[in-house]
Amino acid sequence: MRLEDSVLIDSPTNVQENPSLAARDHDAICEDYDQAFRNARLILSVFKELGTPVGKEHRILDFGTGAGTMVYALRKLGYNAFGTDIVPPSPNVWKRLSHGRLCDSCKVPLTVIDTTLYRLPYEDDFFDFVVSVEVMEHVQDHGTAFAEIRRVLKPGGKSFHSFPTRYRIIEPHVSVPLATIFQQAGYLYFWALIGFRHESDRGKSAAEVARKNYVYLRDSTKYLTKRDLVSLLKGLFGNISFVPHYVWKHSDGMGRTIYEGLSTVGMQKLVPLVARVLSPLRRWAIFFVKPEDRLDSQRFGDDSRNL
């Protein structure tokens, strides 16, 4: 696939829109794009830590790109980024951008996944890197998705994915304790009844919130166990590494605080161990390589036990 074969979405510079709506959404939009730049820099830093830096000549795919914000960020940083998702991006995102500080024209190559066959709209061996952030918990058929990632990666191509774990204490999308595992309607109703809900659900009845959460979790999430994840990726790629310590080092959250704290007292070598212990309670950070041949599957080692 060539760049000109993908959908080129322009951020318009002269779009008339309700000023009050634009003002209301401006901060949220800028926050989304600030996060996109943070995610882009995080991914670039992780690949550099792994000794596989992304070059400006490489093609990188944002799998599950949503509105294409991270593709936008990567391309603004000078990288040859593409994005794909099962849903086309809303043009309203770009309309609202015309009233924000990120209003300069930028062409973002985005494509839509064929969900009938579940096939990524790219040729075999097309990308040097495939990445995703907060996407894999929404995939319903991980085997097919990872097989497609393998297909579009070049031999020796690298892939990194960060997403919430099955063992996360608070499910991040519905804000209910252990709803990554327990998703029965009665369980969700109990937590809604005692006030565990998103801000957007304030004022709604517990039954309404529980029903919405039940449908969302049933239709839009699927959390793999660590065993299933390792088995799947080792079967497809022959290798998988868990690299939460690199994410901690370059993120802005609690992991960064722990990393800096241990480094300050001369205990930096403990960071990988602490990260492996704590990361199953929050977020997976996985890295794998498409083998160039059978022997090359061991090139980066097997860290599947080191979590």
TrEMBL record:
Keyword annotations: Methyltransferase, Transferase
Domain Methyltransferase type residue range list: 61-158
A GO BP annotation: methylation
Molecular function via GO: S-adenosylmethionine-dependent methyltransferase activity
Pfam families reported for this sequence: Methyltransf_11
Keyword Methyltransferase: yes
PANTHER family documented for this protein: 2-METHOXY-6-POLYPRENYL-1,4-BENZOQUINOL METHYLASE, MITOCHONDRIAL, METHYLTRANSFERASE
Protein name, per record: Class I SAM-dependent methyltransferase
Organism annotation: Desulfomonile tiedjei
